Amino acid sequence: MEDEEFNSNILNKILRKVVLPALMLCFKTQWDKKYPDQPWSWSRKCVKLLDEKEEDKFQERLTNTSDVSRKRRMERKREQVLNNMKSEESWNNGKWDIGKLVYALVDSKLFKLDKPDENGKPLSEHLTEIRMLRNQMSHLEQRYDNDTTESEIKSLEENIKNLGIPQSDMDNSIKELQKISTEERPGCSEALNKVKTENHIFKLENGNLAIQLKLYENIISFSKQERRLENKAKNMEQKYNGATKEVNKLKQKVDDTEEENERLRDEIQRLKHELEKESEKWKLEYYKTKQEKDQIKQHADDLESENEKLYDNIQTEIRNLKLIL
C-alpha cells in the first residue's frame, strides 16, 4: 500500500471513529445548553423538533431581510436543503454524518458559536474546517503525503479540543486520535520495487549475461523514471490540494461576507426605524413647545393691554383729583 493511500485511510478512520462521535457530543451539548427543558436524543421526535425550530429561525431571518434578491437566494438555498439533505431517511432518524452534524450546528443558525478560543478562532470556524476536510476526503478522494497528513491531524486535534465537550470525553477523543495516527505503516514503495527487481534478476541468472545486464539497466531506468513521475504527480497533487483549500476558504469568506452584509443591512433598517420614531417624537415635542410659547406670548400681550388700561385709569384719577383740589 502506498504511503498516500495509507495516510488517506488514517484520516478517514480518524474522521469516522473520533471526529464523528465528538461532533455528536458537541451538538447534544449545545442543544441541551440552549433547550434544557427539551434534552436531545437521537430520535425522530427530536429531529422533528429541530426542524421546527430551524424553520422558525429561517422565517424570522427572512422577515428581517428587506433585500428582495437576498430573500430569493435564501429561499433557493433553503429549498435545496429540504429537497436533498433533509429528504434523506438518515436525517429523519438522527443517523447523521459529519456534513449533517456541521449543518445542524452552524447552518441552522440556532446556536451562538462565535465565542473565540485562545487563538481567536470561533467554534463555527473549527466546525467549518472539519467539514472542509471531510468534503475533500469524500468527494475529491485525495491522497496525502506524510507532511500534509501530519498537519491535518494536528488541525483535527485542535478542532476537537475546542468543541466545548466535557473534558473527559475530549481527553478520550484525543487519545484515540493519537492512537490511530501512530498505527504502523507498511513498507515504502521503493523497498518493494527493489525486491521486485532483485527477484527478476535472480530468475535470469542462468541466461545470457549481457541480456541480464541490459534488462537490469532497463529496470533501474524505469524505476528512476517512475519515481520522477511519482514525485511530479505528488507535487501537482499538493498544488491542487493547496489550490482547492484556497478556493474553499474564498468561498467561505464570500459566505461570511454575505452574512455580515445581511447583518449590517438589518442593523441599518433597525436604526432607520428608531430614527423615524425619534423624529416623530421630536416633532410632537416641537409642536407642543410652540403651542405653549404662543399661549405664553398671548398671555403676555393680554397682561400688557391690561397694564395700559390700568395706567390710563390711574392717570384719569390723578387729573380728577387735581381738579378737585
Key phrases:
elongated; 2 domains; 81% helix; 10 helices; mainly alpha; 325 residues
Query: Rg, please?
Result: 39 Å
Count of folded domains? 2
Biggest sheet features: none
Estimated share of beta-strand residues: under 5%
Count of DSSP E strands?
Answer: 0
Report on the architecture of this protein:
The longest helix has 116 residues, at 209-324. Helix 1 (3-34) packs parallel to helix 5, helix 6 (123-140) runs antiparallel to helix 7 (146-161) and helix 9 runs antiparallel to helix 10. This protein folds into two domains: 1-42 and 95-186, no CATH class; 189-287. With 325 residues, the protein is mainly α. It is 81% helix and 0% strand. It contains ten helices and no strands.
Q: Would you kindly provide a brief summary of this structure?
A:
By secondary structure, the chain is an all-alpha fold. 81% of the residues lie in helices and 0% in strands.
